[in-house]
């Protein structure tokens, strides 16, 4: 039954009422489209702003990373130079140590040679004392001072 009533009501409605309803529906439809577009535009504007902020942040981070990378490369170069300098000093110290050891060996050899010469001189002086008939000082006593 309700369908019959709707049909009767539709038949009784005048043409101008139908036009008003259609215009109202079209106006509402256009308003809905405008609201939808405006909302979408606001969303796009918000996304553009957010994307711009993200790009700015990314640029700052990239710049900071590049600066830190440069600092690290400089530090690495300085460390390598210090390591090379330490290696040169180490090599020089080893060379000096070898030279000092050679010099100590020469000094020990020279000292032993001088000691032999001193003993030989003392032995020669003792024999000369024994052979000298005019020597009246005993061997154990030092010669008198003049």
Q: How would you sum up this structure, described in words?
A:
The protein is 88% helix and 0% strand. With 146 residues, it is an all-alpha fold. The mean pLDDT is 89.
Topology:
Elements: H1 2-12, H2 15-131
Backbone CA Rg: 58 Å
What can be said about the biggest beta sheet? none
The number of helical runs is: 2
Mean pLDDT: 89
Question: Oligomeric state of the chains?
Answer: single chain
* Percent strand: under 5%
Broad shape:
rod-shaped
**How many strand elements?**
0
Give the SSE string.
Answer: HH
Share of helix, binned = over 70%
Q: What is the terminal-to-terminal distance?
A: 167 Å
Which structural class is indicated by helix and strand composition?
Answer: mainly alpha
Low-confidence parts: none
What's a concise summary of this model?
The chain contains two helices and no strands. It has helices at residues 2-12, 15-131.
Keywords:
single chain, 146 residues, mainly alpha, rod-shaped
């Amino acid at each position: 039954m309700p369908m019959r009533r709707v049909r009767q009501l539709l038949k009784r409605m005048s043409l101008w009422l139908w036009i008003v309803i259609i215009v109202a529906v079209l106006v509402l439809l256009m308003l809905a489209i405008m609201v939808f577009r405006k909302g979408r535009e606001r969303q796009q504007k918000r996304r553009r702003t957010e994307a711009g902020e993200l790009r700015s942040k990314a640029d700052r981070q990239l710049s900071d990373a590049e600066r830190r990378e440069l600092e690290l490369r400089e530090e690495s170069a300085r460390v390598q130079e210090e390591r090379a300098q330490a290696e040169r000093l180490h090599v020089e110290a080893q060379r000096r140590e070898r030279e000092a050891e050679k010099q100590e060996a020469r000094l020990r050899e020279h000292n032993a040679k001088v000691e032999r010469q001193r003993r030989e001189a003392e032995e020669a002086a003792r024999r000369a004392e024994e052979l000298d008939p005019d020597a009246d000082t005993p061997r154990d006593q030092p010669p008198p001072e003049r």
